[in-house]
Design a protein that fits this description.
By secondary structure, this protein is of the alpha/beta class. The protein has one domain: Rossmann fold (3-Layer(aba) Sandwich). It has six helices and five strands. It has a five-stranded parallel beta sheet with strand order 3-2-1-4-5, with helices on both faces.
Length: about 130
């Protein structure tokens, strides 16, 4: 299975955090799964690092290097991913969701046939079969 990591899952994985649920850890460490990270996650976490360097310890370059050392594959943001973002399905009565990084990450997974691994409570409101909530 090809799995795209949500930004917080990426950080928890790189940090070896206990916040990463066992199911997530199993999916990420399963040798049959290929693990991906998005350039959008690096962008998002770089912004957060600049605002809160004590909370998000890694600048962009270090994050990318850690991902490469972990054997993860980078997914660039393409126009086709932006177009896929416009096709995301969400019920009208679902709580508002404004996070553009979440939306592009789901769209990337959808457009590339990957599964998207997240812990974000807002994301299962999307009617997208590519989302794995842990």
């Amino acid at each position: 299975m090809n799995i795209l990591l949500d930004s917080h899952i990426l950080l928890w994985t790189l940090d070896g955090s206990s916040q990463l649920a066992e199911k997530g850890r199993e999916l990420i460490t399963d040798a049959h799964n290929e693990i991906y990270y998005s350039a959008a996650s690096i962008w998002e976490l770089s912004i957060k690092h600049q605002l809160h360097p004590k909370q998000i310890r890694y600048p962009a370059k270090m994050l990318r290097e850690l991902c490469q050392q972990a054997g993860f594959t980078e997914v660039p943001v393409l126009v086709s991913h932006v177009e896929a973002m416009e096709t995301l399905s969400r019920p009208q009565d679902a709580p508002r969701h404004k996070d553009p990084f979440d939306k592009i990450l789901i769209a990337q997974a959808k457009a590339t046939g990957m599964m998207f691994l997240t812990h974000d409570a807002m994301l299962p409101y999307y009617d997208e079969s590519c989302i794995i909530k842990i």
